[in-house]
Amino acid sequence: MQPNNNNSYPAKTAKPYHKHRKEKHVQDDIMRSIGSRPDCRLFRNNVGQAYQGQVIGDNAYSVTLKNPKRIKYGLTAGSSDLIGWQSLKITPDMVGKKVAVFLAIEVKRPGRITSNKKTLDKQRNFINQVNASGGIAGIVRDVRDAEVLVGRK
Length: 153
Known about the structure:
- By secondary structure, the chain is an alpha+beta fold.
- It has three helices and six strands.
- The strands form two sheets. Strands 1-4-5-6 form a four-stranded mixed β-sheet. Strands 2-3 form a two-stranded antiparallel ribbon.
- Strand 2 and strand 3 (63-73) form a beta hairpin.
């Protein structure tokens, strides 16, 4: 799929949601729907860790590194799956300029919260911090939830 003239991807009709649908597929639907709006930009925010070093052994099941160094990536533990911004126009009494408001969307598979309470607590804390700072953040389970979050419907 190619981006349209405004560098966003065209909206695509989302598949019906059910509790066995994978979170990745819901994220893809949200990226297409919200990402196709001219006022929003979203990016996938993978959070985790990996190792780098000199490869001294390699087979189908493992890699052995010399002088391994742990690398953490992503914003922070608990940060949302999809991050970006929504461009909002300030009211005329505020000069009439546009501003980018930080947007954080945590996607959960329909019918499931999470199996790890510690992770969910960190995610809720991140969402609360974004909202308290004037951003837009929340947990969604489908495109409709995401559209409501960013004020489309």
